[in-house]
Amino acid sequence: MTALADILRKQIKTTGPMTLAQYMSACLLHPDHGYYTTQDALGVDGDFTTSPEISQMFGEVIGLCVAQAWMDQDAPERFALVELGPGRGTLIADVMRATLQVPGFHSAADLHLVEASDRMRRLQAAALPAHKPIWHDTVESLPDDLPVFVIANEFFDALPIRQFQRDPNGWREVVVGIGPDGELQRGLSDAAPIDALNHRLDDTRPGALVETCVHGTAVVDTLARRIASQGGMAVIIDYGGWRSDGDTFQAVRAHRPVDPFTEPGRADLTAHVDFEALARAALIAGCAASQLTDQGVFLERLGITPRAQSLAKGLSGPALEAHVAAHRRLTHPDEMGSLFKVLGLYPGTESPPPGLDP
Fold first, then answer.
1. In this prediction, what percent of the chain has a pLDDT beyond 90?
2. Predicted structure pTM score
């Protein structure tokens, strides 16, 4: 067990079982013992690898997507270029390099990074020595008087979720409590009607489990209102599907699944993204949403294969093999190409971001 496990057990003994969202928040963001505070998560030596870390091509074509969207909206003289959860800064660094030759893009862009971890901010600053990013703890403090062009790659999957199991008498919430052996474990609350889940009564039966993420819909609401009123767009890339269906809560350590309750604070906790909920939140806020698109299809539309072929000309041997494998991993349906999805948000008066259909 971990120091955080002791803290959580004491809290539960005092206040009772906690929601899964409360548990995730503590495990990921505790100031002294949280995962993002203490662990080196990314890369081969970390717990997981994201698309920007697999190949520079990913960030390059995303950068050109953003630049084209900026030009399609008449190239505003000043805008906020935003990344949510920038990791080590690899993606946004590749974006900035790929757009260096786009006339007027860099001089118009104010770079904003939404990152709560001081440790990660230091890594991002090191990756962006030629730029002057402005950091934010949350999206609420992003500019509300500029067009916002937003990139969110594997951001929403780490936001805290709640789980609810359908019951003949309503819904029972999944909670985290203390088992007979004194260890942390899942439990269920008493059944009760929940108005916010009435729309799921038609497509579920008793025993079915659904997940909700109010943090995610709140983020989209904030971004969508800015996009609808000031212009811009958002590209959301993550793993998930159109509607929550079943238990997707998971923990990963050293690239392998682990029990999420065994060593809280030492494993990455995520859940699949419910893109339908995000799209609905955007529409309610007055913003348009694109069709949900496989990552592989999106990247191919943006020209990742010609870029891969261009880069391959200067490679041979193991370097070429690694390059080909990276392209396959990002785009092939049996790998990240269909597991990851892309949703675009944009003003209803404009076209969707390049690579996405309305």
1. 83
2. 0.93
